[in-house]
Amino acid sequence: MKRRFRLRHRSDFERVRRAGKTIPHPLVLFVVAPNSLDTVRIGVVAGRVVGSAVQRNRAKRWLRACLQEFLPALPPGWDVVAFARRPIIEAGFWKTRAAVEESLKRAGLLPVNGKYERRLSE
């Protein structure tokens, strides 16, 4: 994922976590918050609860790959943080992709049936 699409600073992660809306899913937890930029920024987190370093890195790679696929469809002006949850490793890549797509639609960041459902800034 290109650098301009990444959340890199701790203060950005904390702002999104504090001011954002949470979209839970058994495999991944999304927190989304509006930003004042003309781009979408994405951060991926996998804590020790996910498993060993190998498993955490695999979960982060899967989430980044899924989010990279949906990046062109995401509207600008949003910060998205994806937190991997423990069952993500057993679920595999394709179930993770489905979970990411479902969560982004629930957040109102991906169109459902050709139109955006709702915006979280409302």
UniProtKB/TrEMBL annotation:
Q: Can you state which reaction this protein catalyses?
A: Endonucleolytic cleavage of RNA, removing 5'-extranucleotides from tRNA precursor
Q: Which domain of life is it from?
A: Bacteria
Cite the InterPro entries for this sequence: Ribosomal_Su5_D2-typ_SF (IPR020568), Ribsml_uS5_D2-typ_fold_subgr (IPR014721), RNase_P (IPR000100), RNase_P_CS (IPR020539)
Pfam families in the cross-refs:
Ribonuclease_P (PF00825)
Gene Ontology terms: cellular component: ribonuclease P complex
UniProt GO MF annotations: 3'-tRNA processing endoribonuclease activity; ribonuclease P activity; tRNA binding
Function summary: RNaseP catalyzes the removal of the 5'-leader sequence from pre-tRNA to produce the mature 5'-terminus. It can also cleave other RNA substrates such as 4.5S RNA. The protein component plays an auxiliary but essential role in vivo by binding to the 5'-leader sequence and broadening the substrate specificity of the ribozyme.
Give the family per the record: Belongs to the RnpA family.
Task: Quote the subunit structure annotation.
Answer: Consists of a catalytic RNA component (M1 or rnpB) and a protein subunit.
- Name-wise, this protein is Ribonuclease P protein component
Biological source species: Anaerolinea thermophila (strain DSM 14523 / JCM 11388 / NBRC 100420 / UNI-1)
Q: What is the lineage of its organism?
A: Bacteria, Bacillati, Chloroflexota, Anaerolineae, Anaerolineales
